Amino acid sequence: MATDALSRVFAALADPTRRDMVARLSEGDATVSQLAEPYRMTLQAVYKHLRVLEEAGLVSRPRGPQPRPVRLEIGALDLMDTWIERHRDRVEQRYRRLDAVLAEMGRDEHEEEHRDGRRGRPEAAGHPDEP
């Protein structure tokens, strides 16, 4: 069920107008008319965008007389945040493992250079592995 809700949230936010509405509502509640002001679209089109955001659980409008405030719902954002953080943690773990492997390789390379430098003399005419 959470995956379906998450899919609805991401699908709703795929539209730049709806992302902009969510960004505006993050600063405070607004009426539909206030949300419609910056857009060159009909009020009916704004209501369609809001319906998608409502169905995804991103916004709500309380029952009652007009004008009703539209408010951002934190639950849908928490759902996205949980999903994003889970994957961010996995990626960061991969990078930490890669950093550790690279550091180990660097230490091995440094030790090898140090050992070669201690010989102090060029190889004699004999076999290079002879002391």
Order of helices and strands: HHHHEEH
Give the helix level as a range of percent: 55-70%
Individual helix count:
5
Name the strands of the widest sheet in spatial order. Answer: 1-2
Strand content: under 5%
Q: Describe it for me?
A:
The protein is mainly α and 131 residues long. Strands 1-2 form a two-stranded antiparallel ribbon. Helix 1 packs across helix 5. The longest helix is centred in the C-terminal third of the chain and has 45 residues. It is rod-shaped, with a radius of gyration of 30 Å. The model has no long low-confidence stretch (mean pLDDT 86).
Characteristics:
mainly alpha; rod-shaped; single chain; 131 residues; 5 helices
List the helices and strands and how they pair.
Blueprint: H1 2-12, H2 16-25, H3 32-36, H4 43-55, E1 59-60, E2 71-72, H5 74-118
Antiparallel strand pairs: 1-2
Could you write a compact summary of the structure shown?
By secondary structure, the chain is mainly alpha-helical.
